[in-house]
Amino acid sequence: MNKSPVVQSVEKANAEYVASFGEKGKLPLPPSCRFSVLTCMDARMDPAKFAGLSEGDAHVIRNAGGRASDDAIRSLVISYKLLGTKEFFVIHHTDCGMVLFNNQIMGDLLSKSLEQAVVDENGWRDVGQGPGSPEGAKIDWLTFTDDRQAVIDDVKKIRNHPLIPRSIPVYGYLYDVRSGKLEEIKEATEIGKAA
Amino acid sequence: MNKSPVVQSVEKANAEYVASFGEKGKLPLPPSCRFSVLTCMDARMDPAKFAGLSEGDAHVIRNAGGRASDDAIRSLVISYKLLGTKEFFVIHHTDCGMVLFNNQIMGDLLSKSLEQAVVDENGWRDVGQGPGSPEGAKIDWLTFTDDRQAVIDDVKKIRNHPLIPRSIPVYGYLYDVRSGKLEEIKEATEIGKAA
């Protein structure tokens, strides 16, 4: 089977990375800077670049919205309990796709077609004609309407989770995709402070 | 409140990133290379570096193990349905922490203490003396024993999910933390091929 242009590009870039890998093969498993970052999957964000991380420094957990989902909390608990991290950052961002829809819209779109939908001033509509699935209506897509409030909500959820020790501070930030700047959401960091 | 050395370091690195941000503020929301990567939170892995991604290129989803959890699938569905990605990579890695424990061990450790545990030739033991929680025994931690099989299992789970279109190829890879090299797991890619 011929490889797609995307696969060829990834494999070529990887070969270049391997050629200059150097001493990174000796890095230990636990993160040397002892912290974890929970952030969005958004393509415009590169946590290593915007937060100054080198290989080996910190755990990076990413999902749609950077939400404190049960799975993100699973990852955070493994991070501190078994691998020694001691501080958590929750970093959402401006212009997030999660404000553009809600559970009703997503359930409706997926029930009509699994193919891509597009959005314009009249809302979302399906482009494809493929079959849909009722399964989308059963999922909580974890959308939000206010990016700052979502940071506060997620820091609060982590702070109050029974498996997260009070000794770990949880910081809240909003990343501005127009400037690259991390803005601390002080209300979130205050809620997330260690005790 | 004084900021921790970790927070100061992240904010300093971010200020440097902002100073050289350039034209990246004009990037659109949908990923320009139209693919998504699901990989592990492991600190030693930098997907942008090992796969050659620039800001704006691709969605990156990360959790403990790079598992195809329900939350990872939530993110993948949002990625293709609303933001136009057309190929998925599942990338696990060698020397993953997820082979070092299982649900029984994690439940027991968390029931005794929420503080850090350490592992040696005698197994895991708690270092701290803090209170524990029974909640850890209720969670599926998504551990595995064979890193190649886990890639196959996760590609298969995505391929067979009712909300993932058959038109999207799902590729399986194992990243070698000693060399930085991506090895295609052909059995996984074969299972994940588009139809």
What are its keywords?
homodimer; 195 residues; alpha/beta; Beta-carbonic Anhydrase, Chain A; 7 strands
Description:
The structure is a homodimer of 195-residue chains. Chain A is of the alpha/beta class and 195 residues long. The first copy, chain A, folds into two domains: 27-99 and 143-195, 3-Layer(aba) Sandwich (Beta-carbonic Anhydrase, Chain A); 102-140, no CATH class. Helices cover 31% and strands 18% of the residues of chain A. Chain A contains six helices and seven strands; from the N terminus they run αβαβαβαββαββα. In chain A, strands 2-1-3-6-7 form a five-stranded mixed beta sheet. In chain A, β1 (35-40), α2 (47-51) and β2 (59-63) form a beta-alpha-beta unit. The longest helix of chain A is centred in the N-terminal third of the chain and has 15 residues, at 5-19. Chain A is globular, with a radius of gyration of 19 Å. Chain A starts with a helix and ends with a helix. The mean pLDDT of chain A is 96.
